[in-house]
Amino acid sequence: MKRTHYVSELRPEHAGQQVVLQGWVNRVRDFPEQYFVILRDRTGIAQITVDSDNPAYAVAGELRGEYVVEVTGTVRERGEAQRTDQYPTGGVEVIPTELRILNRATTPAFQVDGSPVTVSEDIRLKFRYLDLRRKDMQDVLRLRSRVQAEITRYLDLQGFVNVETPMLTRSTPEGARDFLVPSRLSQGEFYALPQSPQLFKQLLMIAGLDRYYQFARCFRDEDLRADRQPDFTQLDMEMSFVELDDVLNLNESLLRHVFREVMGEELPTPFPRISYHEAMDRYGSDKPDLRFGHAFTDVTDLFRGGAFQAFADAGAVKVMVAPDLTRKQIDELERVAKQNGAKGLAWAKRGPDGFTGGVSKFLTDAAAELTARTGVQDGQTLLFSAGDWRPAVEALGAVRNALRDLFDLASGGPRFHISWVTDFPQLDQDPDTGTWTYMHHPFTAPHPDDLALFGTPRQGEIRAQAYDLVLNGFEVGGGSIRIHQPDVQAKMFAAIGFDEAAARAKFGFFMDALESGTPPHGGIAWGFDRLIMLMSGASNIREVIAFPKNNRGVDLMALAPSTVDDAQLAEVGVQVRLPAE
Amino acid sequence: MKRTHYVSELRPEHAGQQVVLQGWVNRVRDFPEQYFVILRDRTGIAQITVDSDNPAYAVAGELRGEYVVEVTGTVRERGEAQRTDQYPTGGVEVIPTELRILNRATTPAFQVDGSPVTVSEDIRLKFRYLDLRRKDMQDVLRLRSRVQAEITRYLDLQGFVNVETPMLTRSTPEGARDFLVPSRLSQGEFYALPQSPQLFKQLLMIAGLDRYYQFARCFRDEDLRADRQPDFTQLDMEMSFVELDDVLNLNESLLRHVFREVMGEELPTPFPRISYHEAMDRYGSDKPDLRFGHAFTDVTDLFRGGAFQAFADAGAVKVMVAPDLTRKQIDELERVAKQNGAKGLAWAKRGPDGFTGGVSKFLTDAAAELTARTGVQDGQTLLFSAGDWRPAVEALGAVRNALRDLFDLASGGPRFHISWVTDFPQLDQDPDTGTWTYMHHPFTAPHPDDLALFGTPRQGEIRAQAYDLVLNGFEVGGGSIRIHQPDVQAKMFAAIGFDEAAARAKFGFFMDALESGTPPHGGIAWGFDRLIMLMSGASNIREVIAFPKNNRGVDLMALAPSTVDDAQLAEVGVQVRLPAE
């Protein structure tokens, strides 16, 4: 390699050394009889100083932003007046003996020299190769790469086998919409791109691999949001002969390793665990942001059968203490509550003379007990949610998150708060139709003590051996101990209305496999993009993916998807059929 | 974890120790008053001895092959008479205090207990979860995983950034058939699955990432063979500011590291290099198997204008020394020559009185010189190929490989012979139509000294800065220095008949990127499946893939591809159109 140093390695101790640097012209500053060329490579920037008596002076005059250059020269320590600590190489400059233009550049669509980017995200996506020149973007991609390498190292040492599962496969049971791939060799038939390697990783356990992992590309044809892409990456893991604690312990060790090695952050031992019920009941979310408090207090009993009709009949009345809120802030929070299914947001302020405003007139009888239970202080506001338990807590949970954003409540606590949510229900019932479905997926093992409840009216109480990994209020992982006994699998299929024939049609090969000597096993999948988003502090999953799609599923740079020749479609046995036809 | 040991860890020094083992019943041997249960996990096997006075005796009697069990017991050193060295734990047995059946198993479709597998490959693929229980298969998957982990470790340390490129993209320029994915959000439009990340990795260099790698899943809808699958894995790499030697050196270091760490094999420093022309001229292949000799000798001049018409006019006459061949063997080799485009295979045997048989009567004048040049010994056979240079050497190259298989010629030499093939032509001309096309892909950089030949009748002489990595006669990698100058890219497009508009339509975004400040760069892609096939000694690429397709592109286990609901197709704007319709 001709390069002797990456740009940002240069320090005063290199003074006098001959170096070869290669990179991009970040900026040229044109002074009388002198150019300051700011050279950039992936590590940072350094200043090349070209005086008018330097043979490279003419070339320096040709340079424009984003030209690619090679600089051969000598490092010089800057004088006191020229020194800067705005960047790591601010104590030195390089005096070129040769300055070569390796390639020219058109004027970039936007500046990537470190100044703030003001263009729209669409422009950034169209010129992604420019956008990725920015330090922020490169830092994220390097972080992502480092995390992958550390995970690989750790799991390899722990005896995990990295196995690549099929990309052209059959519809998997996650229940989202599949991306389809027409087959040329079997015209009229279609592969599905995998929504996850769920069945394959269980098959690997049935095959005796014992410990499996994979960075798996997964595909779901769902409508896109800030934290979703049509194709995304999972860290997928599965272990045999384990119980729930074994999976959780291994994952905690792995995460501690990664955060320590890559971020220099210590995560706790063990991670806190919170049950699904407690998470919902106290924070109104199955992925509570625990960087801050503001847990709910249950006050259902204080109003039961009382005069305040809205609270008197409610299945649950929950209250959260908030700071002093303006009327405008209360209106905003009420809007959030309504968006999340509440009819309104009851409130009252605590003052020296008791509660005022909002629903305070209904609180008189309960005032002392309310104050005692919630610990509300003068000047603070109480926010109430009442109704059936789940919608009531969910609405107040959304209000809690809005309150966090409004008052920056998460910034005072730890940078990362990670926890497990456990004891999810095995089954979920549609409130309107009464239909039962799985909460995670149909292969999640129920708690062994709850098996007798299958097929009874109380099957909603069955606990799943499932767990979610929650980081700063985002679900970054989810998994479970799986069903390994064919009879339990049959009970589970029956509970969600799959008869034997329906189950066979969908998962016949898997049911055969399950009967062929299946070890107890369990695992997890991490939403890898989302984890990196949180580790890097990015606000959007697109910021941690090199070439993402926009929210219409379009690659604005390569212009995919696109139309294709009819002949190409004929080869794979399909034709376009648009609704208008 | 309840397990205290993997099965094959047990040794006489564990005698007296209490252990918990978990695994599969490999076999049960039923003796009077005694069961020998051979327990298997992913590490190997060990014997559990259950006498009739053992409380576990009744459970042992229930065991059948492939049952999943947990054994708690004490390790005992075997007596002299019982000891065996047929497997690593043959010096010990485990006396159970508890034997638990964790799961039962149906009778397997074929034995996976170490006995030879006699069922068809189709049956193995249908019951892949059984097939993968076999030691051979698990060894391959573990090797593959170890190699991935070592590559990751090495490249991470060398500053390479692992970047995931899009799976849903636009048709790429490799020229094979794309797999298409209809879009739901843009009905009537299609994504293509990537044939390789070629453009994206170049864009990452343009983006200043400097060093990139990825284990990339790639897709080509081509007819399948023993060493091809519709989706396969590449180790994909790209580096900026490099010259050809930099890429080759880095790859050699990486391969030496991997072979040393994973296989305990030393590869040479540096790897031999052979030019495309020499490889073709001397071995008749651009991926010559150099584990053995039998290079060709050129004897064109000896017959030029002579009496033997078939040799007299030939562009090239090549001869290879073979062992003493039977008539049947010669016939077989001639069949190979004909399959590879030759009209026949001329031969003659060297005896004490000169050449006999075959074309010997035409060799009289040249006999002394032939013997001198080839070094042929009494009893050996000369095999000739004559015609235009390329078909002549290619046919004899196929004969050379057939000779290797016939006489096991490769087994005497090194286990692995790795080399670079370099100096490929930049352009390839269709002998019938005269049309020029790229030899590698249109982004390969030509040798800078040959630029002036573009657009001249001599453009076939332009050398590409391309290289293939050849292991034991298989191409396991290929790459090049890429074109970074827009004007050279334009020349290249013009040479293959792409005018500006055609190039823009296909690669417009990439041509814009190329003008935005592109560093010199180059890279390589390893055929990862094929490399693992060779490292593991497997004969077929399907043996190194956990869940492969058969040669009709069918997953016989999951039964993919399959038909899908019309409604599902309607959502993505297509319908089936079969030729019969």
TrEMBL record, chains A, B:
The keyword Kinase does not apply. Its main location: cytoplasm. It is found in: Cytoplasm. It catalyses: tRNA(Asp) + L-aspartate + ATP = L-aspartyl-tRNA(Asp) + AMP + diphosphate. Keywords: Aminoacyl-tRNA synthetase, ATP-binding, Cytoplasm, Ligase, Nucleotide-binding, Protein biosynthesis. ATP binds at R220, D221, E222, Q229, E475, G527, F528, D529, R530. L-aspartate binds at E174, R220, H440, R482. Pfam families: GAD, tRNA-synt_2, tRNA_anti-codon. GO terms for molecular function: aspartate-tRNA ligase activity; ATP binding; nucleic acid binding. GO terms for cellular component: cytoplasm. GO terms for biological process: aspartyl-tRNA aminoacylation. Its EC number is 6.1.1.12. Residues 141-561 form the Aminoacyl-transfer RNA synthetases class-II family profile domain. Residues 198-201 are annotated as: Aspartate. NCBIfam families: aspS_bact, PRK00476.1. Belongs to the class-II aminoacyl-tRNA synthetase family. Type 1 subfamily. HAMAP family: Asp_tRNA_synth_type1. Catalyzes the attachment of L-aspartate to tRNA(Asp) in a two-step reaction: L-aspartate is first activated by ATP to form Asp-AMP and then transferred to the acceptor end of tRNA(Asp). PANTHER family: ASPARTATE--TRNA LIGASE, MITOCHONDRIAL, ASPARTYL/LYSYL-TRNA SYNTHETASE. Homodimer. This is Aspartate--tRNA ligase.
